[in-house]
Amino acid sequence: MCKPRRHAENSGDRSPDLMVNWLRELLFLWTGRYQLVKTVKILSLSEHELTAEVKTEAYSPERHIIRHEIKAVTYHQIQVYESDKAWEAEIIFDV
Q1: pTM of the full predicted structure?
Q2: Strands (E), 15-91
Q3: How far apart are CA 27 and CA 95, in angstroms?
Q4: How far apart are the first and last CA of the chain?
C-alpha cells in the first residue's frame, strides 16, 4: 500500500551538495521511517534547488527483500553535471 505523496525540497551551494542532500533525505525515509521510495516526480530543478513529490510504501518483510542496504551517501568521487539533455550524476554509496 502506497502512502500519500511527500513534498520534498532541498538546496545546496553546489550541484554535488544538492545531490548528496537529496539522496540523504531519501535514505532517511528508509533508515528513519522504514519507507521505501516508489516514485519520484521532480517538480523543479536547478543547480542549487530541487523540489519533488516522493511516493513511498511502508516496508513489509513479507513483500520486500533488501539485498544490499545503503549505509550512507558520500562525496567520494561525486560528479554532477548538466549535459545537453539532462542532469547526470555519478555517486558512490557506502553499503
Answers
A1: 0.83
A2: 35-45, 49-58, 72-73, 79-82, 87-90
A3: 12
A4: 27
| Most distant CA pair in the chain, distance | 43
DSSP H helix total and E strand total for the chain: 1, 7
The C-alpha cell of 80 is what?
Answer: 554532477
One pLDDT digit (tens) per residue for the chain, 95 residues: 455 456 667 777 788 898 899 999 999 999 999 999 999 999 988 878 889 999 999 999 999 999 999 999 999 999 988 888 888 899 999 99
Domains of the chain, start order: 6-94 (3.55.10.10)
Contact 83, 60 (CB under 8 A): no
Q: How many residues appear in the chain?
A: 95
Element holding 80 (H helix, E strand): strand 79-82
Q: Which residue has the cell 502506497?
A: 2
